[in-house]
Specification:
heterodimer; A: alpha+beta; Ubiquitin-like (UB roll); 5-stranded mixed β-sheet; B: Aldehyde Oxidoreductase, domain 4; Aldehyde Oxidoreductase, domain 3; Aldehyde Oxidoreductase, domain 4; 3 domains; 28% helix; globular
């Protein structure tokens, strides 16, 4: 089948099988910033935004993306770099393999919290929102330190 | 200590951080050639079986299948997949493919096809007839079992390691200093206990991946997510019977390792396909394959006895270990020995100490290297027993440790006798701030602020526990690292290192060390690492070696480079090198006048100096006679629900003596991440097999690593410490981080309930059963 969708604001058309998984289709199309790690939707590493909502692309059939808008970390490079600088200051990216999925989810969280008028750094809410993004290197504490500083800077 | 630094001991960002965070194609599978054949592995559904027939004719006939290989098609050369020095302390007990399969997931056939879908179809088309054999699944019943897992004649050890495959024993060792039985007999109190640890999975987020191609000279090039490219090259050459001169191994960025990538896993498969077809070949394991068929932590039973006098002086320690190496003996001897050699020296003033036991084969996935490597298992047993001793004597757990533990300037006979798979080395612990670590941790956790145990609600108890730990910094006289510095035009330096950054930031901290010594900004150092063709030798990233071993090599290379630069300037200006110094930017005479700057020197030596032109380089290696231990004091505060058995870890405090932290932010993250893995081992990471030896916990649905919601706060602090033998005073931090949580949490549970947990992980079921066992035992008294 032919899959047509928008990836990072560009029209993309690829041939794929009906059962193909979005993460694989994206990687094969050159979007290798989508990392694969668990294949069961448990770790959040392959997160992309589907119409602005974070999804685990290893657990989405590619056909579901027909006509829809996908954003990978490269599609939000400017914002990712900004948040990334805080993470890097803590050394909390470590191996970096979970970073694209984690950063993308964190950016979605920031937008969602902003839209909901949530102010300040609510540690428990942040931990809860990001609980599906696993990291085996960092122990998560550095992520929180970075997010606290980033969210505070965002709110001015 | 009066040391001032300008580049080291600074928390600079990792030099590769931006590329990592933006998801650039920097990992192995991101970089695989587009036209590479996709390699998939057919795996055994049985724990132990003989392949009677295997028919891949149908698979080979599928359009797009490039090759199918089984045990008849590969060299029958026994080798070890364990990435260790030479000669390997692990037995050569493995063939790339064999007629026998020894665990569920063991490799049966290799398929290569034009794409993933065809490769999958081909896997399904291979017809295998197995003679299913009775497996040995219980490691307690493995030794001298009538079922022999490794009857093959060709397998062997490289030097005596107690290898007795016909008894299902991969390795054995024992040592005794003093007379343990007599000393225990003469002790006022003796405590004993038996402890079991699970075969924890690494779960590095990047699954193992490799690709291979033939370069322009028809040499085999393998890109792989490995912790040790040089060992991988050597082992690959052994396994394939292929000359090392024709193999190049490159490590790109890798998504975590923790010891799980200290072995050869997928490299032989892509190499074989590439050599068989002449085409590039790629293989990336699925998460399930990583769980089923790569390595895990050695499951262990550790039997402990400790004898002490009434006043709390520890007189004798007896540690017996049974370790499960699974189907193959990778790291069998060394992990097991570290169980004693990196725990027993904590209490170095005993009159007698004994360590011994064996490592057995079973028909389960192989165990291998995993952060903490024996030490975390041994520490769980030892530090649990120290608390039992304190309880029996009515002493405070901190007091008994302080009375007996190792102090700066002391030594340990255990270090002299026991090394990793060999004799140890004699060494004095020149830096040990364990006293401070304990005092500071005690304050941070609030040890004295409130009772160690208190009821906070009906059925809910809050309690604290602690443990101390030590590790090493590389393997003395075994581990070696090298570095080459080269001055390039523009006045920057190329730093080539064999060291292997597995996400920890070692490329960054090694550049910091070079920059500090040369006095140049960090940005003047360009790092190229982990490529067997283009970087000097290094054993790789394991045994907490990189900062200390590779760091010392970089420091030596930088010292040498400085003198090379000064000599070049002296020669160019016909002055004595004694009259030249380098301030990181300019070369100056002793009167302070500027001779020239670094940039102009780089242009002169490469473009202007006629017959004197030269590339200025300096290479140095380091292999030390010491392995200075880092130390940690870990404190856990838990809430225990006596109705459900659930443990909530509220706070984990670890105060560490790692010498000078070359990059405090990165050292802190290592500590936090390592502690979290230790916490995972202690609380969450349960391993289950079914009766036929199939791993049930082989996905992230069924095997729970800690999420960010599972644990409260992890609080890390560093002791001020300076290791004289380390680069700018550094030791190591990678492994010591994981060692203390299991015992500290178990000790908190003991304080909370009076129950001694002896098996990791402390799942609610286990805790509840232990509590109710005690309840019924007490009511029966």
């Amino acid at each position: 089948m032919t899959l047509s969708c928008t990836v990072n604001a560009k029209a993309v058309t690829v041939e794929c099988e009906p059962g193909d998984i979005l993460a694989d289709v994206l990687r094969n199309a050159g979007f290798t910033e989508v990392k694969k790690a668990c294949g069961t939707g448990n770790c959040g590493l392959c997160t992309v935004l589907l119409d602005g909502v974070p999804v685990a692309s290893c657990s989405v059939v590619a056909a579901r993306a027909q006509g829809r808008t996908i954003t990978t970390i490269q599609g939000m490079a400017k914002e990712a770099e900004e948040l990334g600088a805080y993470i890097a200051a803590e050394g909390a990216e470590q191996c970096g393999y979970c970073s694209p999925g984690f950063v993308l989810t964190a950016l979605a969280m920031e937008k969602e919290f902003r839209d909901q008028g949530i102010r300040g750094f609510d540690r428990a809410a942040v931990k809860h929102y990001l609980a599906g993004n696993l990291c085996r290197c960092s122990g998560y504490q550095g992520h929180l330190r970075a997010l606290e500083k980033y969210l505070e800077a965002q709110r001015g | 200590m009066d040391k001032t630094f300008s580049v080291v001991n600074q928390s600079v960002a990792k030099i590769d951080s931006k590329s990592l965070i933006l998801g650039r194609p920097v990992y192995t599978d991101d970089m695989a050639p587009k036209d590479a054949l996709v390699v998939k592995i057919l795996r055994s559904p049985y724990a132990f079986a003989k392949i009677k027939t295997i028919d891949s004719s149908e698979a080979k006939a599928i359009k797009g299948v490039a090759c199918v290989l089984d045990w008849r098609d590969v060299p029958r050369i026994p080798y070890t997949r364990a990435g260790q020095g030479h000669p390997e302390p692990s037995p050569h007990d493995r063939f790339i493919l064999d007629q026998y399969v020894r665990f569920v997931g063991d490799e049966v056939a290799i398929v290569a096809a034009e794409n993933e879908a065809i490769a999958r179809q081909a896997l399904k088309s291979i017809k295998v007839e197995y003679e299913v054999l009775e497996p040995v699944l219980d490691f307690e019943k493995a030794a001298d079992n009538p079922i022999v897992i490794h009857p093959e004649k060709e397998i062997h050890d490289m030097f005596p390691i107690g290898f007795e495959p016909l008894r299902n024993i991969a390795a054995a060792y024992s040592m005794e200093l003093g007379d343990v039985e007599a000393t225990l007999g003469a002790s006022d109190v003796v405590v004993d206990g038996s402890f079991t640890t699970q075969s924890q999975a690494h779960v590095a987020t990047e699954p193992h991946a490799a690709f291979a191609y033939l370069d322009i000279h028809q040499r085999l090039v393998v890109y792989t997510s490995t912790q040790n490219p040089f060992h991988t090259r050597r082992l690959l050459g052994q396994a394939l019977g292929f000359p090392l001169s024709r193999i190049r191994v490159v490590k790109p960025r890798i998504g975590g390792g923790f010891g799980g990538k200290q072995h050869v896993h997928v490299e032989p498969f892509v190499a074989l396909v590439c050599l068989a077809t002449g085409r590039p070949a790629r293989c990336a394991l699925s998460r399930r394959e990583v769980f089923d068929a790569t390595f895990c932590r050695h499951q262990m039973r550790i039997d402990m006895r400790i004898g002490a006098s009434k006043d709390g002086k520890i007189k004798a320690i007896d540690m017996g270990v049974l370790s499960n190496t699974g189907a193959y003996g990778e790291h069998a001897l060394t992990v097991f020995m570290v169980g004693g050699s990196k725990t027993l020296p904590l209490y170095n003033k005993v009159e007698a100490v004994r360590f011994g036991g064996k490592v057995v084969y079973t028909n389960t996935r192989s165990a291998g290297a995993f952060r903490g490597y024996g030490a975390v298992q041994g520490n769980f047993a030892l530090e649990s027993m120290i608390d039992e001793l304190a309880n029996k004597l009515g002493m405070d757990p901190i007091e008994i440790r302080k009375k007996n533990m190792v102090q700066e300037g002391e030594s340990s006979d255990v270090y002299r006798v026991m090394g990793e798979g060999r004799e140890g080395v004699e060494m004095v612990f020149e830096s040990c701030k364990l006293d401070y670590c304990i005092d500071r941790g005690r304050a941070l956790i609030g040890w004295d602020d409130e009772p160690l145990v208190r009821s906070i609600a009906p059925g809910k108890i809050r309690a604290k526990g602690m443990a101390i730990a030590m590790q090493g910094s590389g393997i003395p006289l075994v581990d070696m690292g090298s570095a080459t510095l080269e001055l390039q035009d523009g006045g920057c330096f190329k730093l080539r290192i064999g060291a292997t950054d597995l996400g920890t930031g070692s490329d960054t901290i090694l550049a910091q060390i070079a920059a500090e010594e040369l006095g140049v900004p960090l940005a003047s150092i360009n790092v190229y690492a982990s490529d067997t063709d283009h970087t000097p030798f290094d054993v790789g990233a394991y045994a907490s070696s990189t900062t200390y071993v590779s760091g010392n090599a970089v420091l030596r290379a930088a010292k040498k480079m400085k003198s090379v630069l000064i000599q070049a300037v002296a020669q160019r200006h016909s002055i004595s090198s004694d009259d030249v110094r380098f301030d990181g930017h300019n070369f100056l005479k002793s009167d302070g006048s500027v001779i020239q700057d670094l940039e102009s020197l780089s242009l002169d030596t490469l473009y202007h100096d006629g017959e004197q032109m030269a590339t200025l380089t300096a290479t140095a290696s380091f292999s030390g006679p010491k392995s200075p231990p880092p130390y940690v004091a870990g404190f856990a505060e838990i809430d225990l629900d006596t109705e459900t058995g659930k443990i909530d870890l509220l706070r984990y405090v670890a105060v560490v003596d790692c010498g000078v932290a070359i990059n405090p932010a990165l050292a802190r993250i290592q500590m936090e991440g390592g502690a979290m893995q230790g916490i995972g081992m202690a609380l969450f990471e349960n391993v289950k097999f079914d009766a036929k030896g199939r791993l049930l916990t082989n996905s992230l649905k069924t095997y729970s690593i800690p999420s960010r919601e599972d644990v409260g706060q992890i609080i890390i602090e560093f002791a001020e410490s300076y290791e004289p033998s380390g680069p700018f005073g550094a030791k190591s931090v990678a492994e010591v981080s994981i060692d203390s949580p299991p015992a500290a949490i178990a000790n908190a549970v003991r304080n909370a309930t009076g129950v001694r947990l002896t098996e990791t992980p402390f799942t609610p079921e286990r805790v509840l059963m232990a509590i109710s066992d005690r309840g019924s035992a007490l009511s029966g008294q």
